[in-house]
Amino acid sequence: MATTRKSTAPSSGRRVRRTRLALARALIELAEERDQSRTGVSDVAERAEVSRSPFSYHYGDVHELAEDACTAMIDELIESLPGPRPFMTGSTLLADGGDTA
Q1: What is the 3-state secondary structure (H, E, C) of the chain?
Q2: What is the pLDDT of residues 44-96, one digit of tens each?
Q3: How far is 101 from 78, CA to CA, in rounded Å?
Q4: What pTM value is reported for the model?
Q5: Hey, which residues does 89 pair with through a beta bridge?
Q6: Is the dihedral of CA 10, 58, 78, 96 positive or negative?
Q7: Residue 41 and residue 51: Cα distance in Å, rounded?
Q8: How far is it, in rounded angstroms, from Cα 50 to Cα 16?
């Protein structure tokens, strides 16, 4: 599970979201061009037009960014679904707390 660092400064919230989004988009663009195993922190930071420092502040490595980006995409997909919101319990997907039996 990703262990990202969180900023507590209220004025930096928008900047943090913008930076994280830029990093995620950069990683996705690079993934379309080459294998993730050949993509490093410098590659992502350069494509996102940020220095390595913001990357390192938010993520430990490229894999942590990838996990965070995938989780965000799945969350957005779930939010876009019509009707009751599904949620996970253990390894079973349930809709609105339905019975597993």
Answers
A1: CCCCCCCCCHHHHHHHHHHHHHHHHHHHHHHHHCCHHHCCHHHHHHHHCCCHHHHHHHCCCHHHHHHHHHHHHHHHHHHHCCCCCEEEECCEEEECCCCCC
A2: 999 999 999 999 999 999 999 999 999 988 989 988 988 776 565 555 544 55
A3: 24
A4: 0.68
A5: 92
A6: negative
A7: 10
A8: 12
- Flag whether pLDDT at 17 surpasses 60: yes
Convert the pLDDT of each residue in 21-40 to its tens digit.
999 999 999 999 998 889 99
Kind of pairing, strands 92-95 and 86-89? antiparallel
The two structure tokens encoding residue 4: 């990202």
In this structure, which amino acid lies at residue 8? T
